Amino acid sequence: MSRLPFAAALCAATLATSGTARAQADFNSCLAGIRASAAQQGVSGSTFDNVMAGVTPDPKVIESMNAQPEFKTPIWDYLATLVDEQKVAEGRQMMARHAQALASAEQRFGVDRYTIAAVWGVESDYGKIAGRWMLPQSLATLACTANRRQAYFRGELIATLKIVDRGDIAPSKLRGSWAGAFGQTQFMPSTYLRLAVDGDGDGRRDLVDSTADALHSTANYLAKSGWVTGAGWGYEVQLPQGYSGPSGRTRKVPLAQWSSLGIRRIDGSGLTGSGAAGLLLPAGAGGPAFLVFKNYDAAYAYNGADSYALAISLLSDRLRGRGGIQTAWPTDDRGTSRAERKEIQEHLLRRGYDIGEADGAIGAKTRQAIADYQGRLGLTRDGRPGGRVLDALRGGR
Prior knowledge:
Strand 6 and strand 7 form a beta hairpin. The protein is globular. Strands 4-6-7-3-5 form a 5-stranded antiparallel beta sheet. Strands 1-2 form a two-stranded antiparallel ribbon. The chain has 17 helices and 7 strands. The chain is α+β, with helices and mostly antiparallel strands.
């Protein structure tokens, strides 16, 4: 037998090992440069060495950065899980438990407690979700191996080191998203340095273990983003038949102009509020419509997406006792709440699908099982946990 295949395999293995060694050397060189930059910005060498000891690149971070979303999330799906009855009930319980911290944040920064709590609920499910990634490793991976935005993540890593160097948060507590957002209301490290505040009076700014610090810091963020004390974010409206006029969060005009186009509040009454407003049509003119004011823009600034800002705004309304959206979404496959998604998983488990625990969190295994089930029914295999799949499961199909 020829020895060439073995030789070729040996050569490939040697090249792979050599490539790995070069990659590690490049990573170490990058960290050395960050260490020098951090020192110039006041971070002690001992802090850097302690925080970064044993840190290696994590390929899964880059996978998360580069992953294209396999399943698009319609706005009605997004809101169905973030503004469901469970989120509202838990939010009211948590608001009662932390009433003092919310009241003091409201008084200190002029942002109402319902909006502060809504951000808390959407970002971490009221402090229950911490994130799976250790910030030093994820940010070092991005700063040294990502194919874009390396300078940005380098700055976030140095900001993380500053947080530790100042004694606010221990390195073991710095766990968050793959991109570096952490704490009960998900601040990026640089945002933490600029806007985090002490809410419980202990002299530290701890967004991980201090709920008061997290709530006060969120209120400060919204206030700095232009929050208008005492004003609302907006409200649902009804459009005239066949409306095809202007829309968009940034295209704000006086209310009189919207009134002249035949737009009314959802109950048919005249438009109210102070200042200019934009018309938000998150699913087009055939779905729910909202007039949004400056406070909506403050919520938008927190995460830069209309779906997010609308979730915050609608949840804040529900927490204060107002009703939900009245206009139906333009779909025949409604969104499902977390309780309904858990029910979907329970049905799939009973049908023999290996998806793990029924917890209402839709991961890859659940989506694959749904897609298989959809295929058996002759439906589009999109893996979406919508109302159509739930109804079929309930019906025993």
